[in-house]
Queue: 4 jobs
Job 1
Amino acid sequence: MSKILVAYTTNSGSTAEVATEIGKELAINGRQVDVRRLEEVTGLDDYDAVVVGAPMILGWHSAALKFIKQNQTALTHKKVAYFCTALSLTRTDDSIIHSIPLQMDPDLAIPPVHAGRLSFKERYSTPTNYLNPILKAAPAVKPLRIGFFGGKLEMFRLKFWQAAFVMIIIRAQPGDVRNWPFIQTWARELNTEFSS
Ligand SMILES: Cc1cc2nc3c(=O)[nH]c(=O)nc-3n(C[C@H](O)[C@H](O)[C@H](O)COP(=O)(O)O)c2cc1C
């Protein structure tokens, strides 16, 4: 039976809980699942399938970009999925980018105010703008799916410049907008894909 790794990184902690929830769903059929912070992953040889998850922190967290870049060769021989936690996502018609199906939390993905004339923030937050650097970091890796999930923001956990960025550019309000049923469904569907 295949072994699965859910490897994540985090800025303030909340993506760790998302990774744990995904790990629980993937383990439902008795499959062995390790949930590890990226920094704790020492190798991928033991795994047939790998989920890599990270928050958007001025783009996908740099530790996640580095991880997929460094492990690109190993990941091309495994079933892979990515997930991103975020607070701002512009809803576009893209449900597939570079042949990879995207799943966007409907509560997170907000349509632009004027379709066809996106504001700076709306352009910054499109799935394509977020994903291009991720796919460029490890172009040989073909994830089966990429999920965008609502995240969590607690201002007191941030450095001053981080809080300023989030308030001015992302214009996000503090709070927890993680959509657990959406995350669980995503993981359940992924489980089916990992099993086939
Ligand atoms: C410095 C900083 C930059 C961020 N940049 C983005 C961003 O570009 N797009 C976005 O949607 N959310 C952004 N966020 C929000 C985080 O992605 C969100 O709060 C996430 O849930 C944090 O996960 P964590 O608790 O695991 O660190 C940013 C947050 C911080 C603190």
Job 2
Amino acid sequence: MHVNFYAGGTLDRTAPLRRDDAHFQALLAEPVTRVVAVWRDRNLIRTDPEPAAIWLTEPAAVAEAVSAARTVALLGRGDGCPYVAVDLSELDDPTVLAGIDRAEDFIGLRDVSAAMNREEAALLAYAKGLMFWHGRHLFCGACGAPTHVEASGHVRRCTNPDCAVQHFPRTDPAVIMLVVQGDRCLLGRNRRFPFKLYSALAGFVEPGESLEEAVIREVLEEAGVHVGGVRYHSSQPWPFPGSIMLGFHAEGISEEIVIEDDELLDAQWFTRDQLSRIDGQDMRLPRSDAIARQLVDAWLRGDVAF
Ligand SMILES: [Zn+2]
């Protein structure tokens, strides 16, 4: 099994205990509880000497953060310590809280995660993704009434008694695929990429569509290339902001590239030889913490055959 970055954490999510509110309240008062702070989609991280999570651990700081938070959620238990996420986004200045020294310590996880301990990165990604979902579901999608938090932060329920719908944290499935054909693979340069980064094509799965169908449709839409076989590789939590990337290799059965999609600036077939020389030039491949790079590396190693 291939385990991608942001996955493979050893945290026990303690899901059976989430409905036990007394358990959650007791756990918040445990002296070893670690609070994972999220502020406006950023995580609390120190960068010196290397990127690492900052937990709030002092009981007074924990209590203060929990009472100031818009949302509090139980992440689980690891190394004997409960981990609790708090969303502090409603504070204009999070440094009013004990244990938070500088607003600049709230950092975009993607900016620093490649140099982080994988276990910590997985935990921060979990907290970030869960809090993003909460922030987008403050009101009921069925009737528009406010929602409130239940199940230790893993459910939001509509406060309208005639509705009372439960909303569960969602993750949007996206397919990402390396299209290969003999000794070549297809990479595209997204309009949003800040430099000449060439990566695997990707897109969201639509309702009423299988993953394989999404792969075939996206490649045709984005690059005009027809796909035959589709083979699953691995998946990666991608809370940027709320996805899971489902990685595939796909067999290209046509050659001509036609870009009609607004998302791509360019797409090209690259040989193995070209790819081995691409990094460090003016073009770049994705970083190794991204599943796109793992798809490329697996193909370069010869792990993929159609
Ligand atoms: Zn409702």
Job 3
Amino acid sequence: MPEPLHELAAALPEGALLTGEATEPYRRDTADGAEAGVPLAVALPETTEQVAAVVRACVANGLAIVPQGARSGVAGAANAIDGAVMLCLERMTAVLEVSTVDQVARVEAGVRTIELARAAADAGLFYPPDPGSWEISTIGGNVATNAGGMRCVKYGVTRDFVRELTVVLADGEIVRLGHRTVKGVAGLDLVGLMVGSEGTLGIVTEVTVALRPAPAPTAGLSAAFPTAEAALAAAEALVAEPRRPSVLEFLDAGCLVAIDAMIARGEAPGPRLPAAEALLLVQSDGPDAGADVEHYAAIARAHGATLVETADDPARADALMELRRLLHPALRSLRGAVLNEDVSVPRAQLPALLEGIQRLAVDLDVTIVTGGHLGDGNLHPFLAYDPADPDDVARSIRAYLAVIDLAVRLGGTATGEHGVGSLKLPAIEAELGPRVVAAQRAIKAALDPQGLLNPGRKY
Ligand SMILES: Cc1cc2nc3c(=O)[nH]c(=O)nc-3n(C[C@H](O)[C@H](O)[C@H](O)COP(=O)(O)OP(=O)(O)OC[C@H]3O[C@@H](n4cnc5c(N)ncnc54)[C@H](O)[C@@H]3O)c2cc1C
């Protein structure tokens, strides 16, 4: 065994260092079209101290480190780099504490998002951020990407819930950042810096999140519209409501066709979907959720909805939302691969964004269908392509960057929630400007002078 592998093995329990073919399942996240190298090894630590020992062994041998949660990311940010050590926290799955008095939960970074939500619910509390991937993603990955989800429109994103982090820095030192308390301004906001840093500034091993009292049972509706413009106008009216929806999602005609095809093939539960130009999925978890949903239904009809289905029990409301969760697999099955964007624009620019995307699809001869978190101005244009057709691949990558350029020109951003990873790297300087990119690299150099943590990603 080469010396670095000896040192890594000594830092870990028996069986927690994988090499050779055993590393294959850890080489890539779910992003099609992102490069993945061949790692030296995969480390599967079980404690913060073991994470620190692995980092020290890597530093001593000049090895790059790629932190990993569940590899559900869609930006290539957790993909292997040649010769790197994949530092995967999937074995750190303890829920350490749920405090009903402080309304916080403290968990290890490898806890799946849904397990955190369940632990909170068992104590009569609520962890709102719910990425579509919450059954697989880890809270460490959510922190590192500042993940969003369906309920952000009412509650905010992961950043809004992170109170305190335990982080292993690039020199192997263990630090605690932030405050368990509601308030706390001692020192700079290093938690804010760490959240969304995509594994480039430190390795998160423990997370304390704020919780809320459990909301009322959810009620929901789906509303089909004859035009996307009508759906956007209805959404604008819904967001202006004092009865704030807890979910406001959008599916365009292409999304509906792709999901319906999955249902027709028996790959997803029915009933079949209506043919429509756009569908809104809206929920309320307010104290009078049933009445809220009736009110939302009236707004949808007033804006021309042709078919409105309401569900005042949580199971039926969840079943409607399952459609939304099928988006990624449904679109991938269209052509074999998909580039999944997550551009975000000020809500007033949503009509211009959708119109511009349609124009780009025609001009660049690509397939783009769009769904996502309309209430946040955060949409997922999906570029479905045939990975075996080099022309199609090249056109789709061009269109991917053109959609980002469009969103930035409309006052938005390349990435609302998935992160930059490697896929969006070519677009970042244009959005942030060279001075801001340089400032970010200076912060990176201060915290990781050897540039070992997830190098070549994010900025
Ligand atoms: C079907 C589907 C639906 C999705 N829906 C959403 C959605 O609604 N909203 C959303 O925001 N995202 C969504 N995603 C994307 C993805 O699930 C999120 O980005 C998620 O936060 C990634 O978590 P993970 O544990 O899988 O992290 P990974 O994919 O393993 O890693 C993601 C990034 O975080 C870093 N990282 C991971 N763990 C740590 C750690 N402990 N310390 C430091 N860095 C770390 C990695 O280096 C990488 O840069 C979806 C993905 C899929 C496949």
Job 4
Amino acid sequence: MIGQTKPDATEGFPADLLLGRLPASGGTKTLQLAQELRAAILGGRLLSGTRLPPSRVLAVELGVSRSVVVHAYADLAADGYLEARRGAGTRVRPLASSDAAPSRAPDATRLAGPPDNRPSLVRIPARVRLLGGLPDPQLFPRTTWLRHYRATLATIPDIDLGYPDPRGAEPLRCALTSYLGRVRGVLTTPEQIVVCEGATQGLMLICRVLRLAGARSIAVEEPCFGPHRDAITVSGLTPLPIAGDAHGLDPSRLVESDAAAVLVAPAHSYPTGATLDTDRRRRLIAWARETEALIIEDDYDAELRYDRTPIGSLQGHAPDHVIYLGSASKIFAPALRLGWIAAPQRHVAALQREKRLADMGSNPIDQLAFARFLERGEFARHLRRIRPIYRRRRDATIAALDELLPDAAWSGAAAGLHLYLTLPPGVDAPSLVTTAYRRGILLEHAALHWANPTNAPPALVLGYGTLPNPTPVIAALSQIIHASQSSS
Ligand SMILES: Cc1ncc(COP(=O)(O)O)c(C=O)c1O
């Protein structure tokens, strides 16, 4: 993903752009880059009017010389795909109707616990919260949000203060369509987006729609994010655990299930952090096509990827078979309760109905403020700011673990805000969590995320997002673990 350059090099610019790695051979780099961009435009991932990153930014991100990008842009401009205007940068031009991707013109019509015996992790006070996936509230861009809230409140038309469109505010659905296409390779339209109160509400809505359509079960990764398994259960569906490994969920195990859908986080599974490999992505899509099952793609933290070219969404490869779920919880704050669904057209009306019945639609002021963030490239700028910070925190956490807890094994750290820590042999995870809590450290026991927690290996989900300096915390953890080993 593009976006780890010096902030001043890209000021005011949405630099994130999902492009494949340029192959080492097969034509000049300029030709290859032009082909990649042309395919993205013709495939509908780069919409008309999308501003491309400045050549110097893209060159740094791709590791090529600036002239490669300049020449690729010039070739595409000569072919009519791009247009460059002084002071306005390079943008995608509207295509002629004969070769255009399907129209995405916004719709002008305005529409006037399961047995909850798991401990709540939300409000327990502790000095250090190592919970998986928590972003740092200190990094929340309060000033920019305030500016957009003010502007939204000052300009929102009276009519928009009535009950909102249950699919979400149209400007946000348009901005998300463009953003998701550009950054995650999602192929959708504003009419297919339903804005929801976080990915979890999105999943609840999807479950209700599937249940009403006659579904009985949804396959889930084993382990998977516990609250999502609970959401499936309370919707009257049976979650079917499907084992995976370091390469993600194994699709061959789906074959004997009669699941109507599978819930999967292919870019960064929770809690293990596994990434679904290319072969399994292909086989998962083949399974969905053959059985007419749905893939529910939970893309909750994919923007925070640190070490390699980002993996595009599954949805972009099979838009008719995948319901895509995204969330602002990791990038901004869980408290915003902002998420989005991009659904195949045939499910949109039912999702819209469920959303209306759930809460009569999400707060449009939040949505319009967020739309302004996206439209102005400030979302991309925020990502460029936080990604290197979280990457440094992750690296420092890993370095501290390697030094202070070498007998524990970490994995799944390529993206997001957590890693998976398998504890050294002989450590009792529940008592470790209790002892650490008494010392002011809140830990997340990975067993929370297993269908049957007694099957879970002793492990923690270690969230490093809120730790500017992880070493003292890891030292304290190491001390507690080693003390428990010597007393057992
Ligand atoms: C796997 C997974 N998906 C989604 C989310 C985000 O859910 P929401 O958008 O409802 O906050 C989380 C949060 O931790 C998660 O772990």
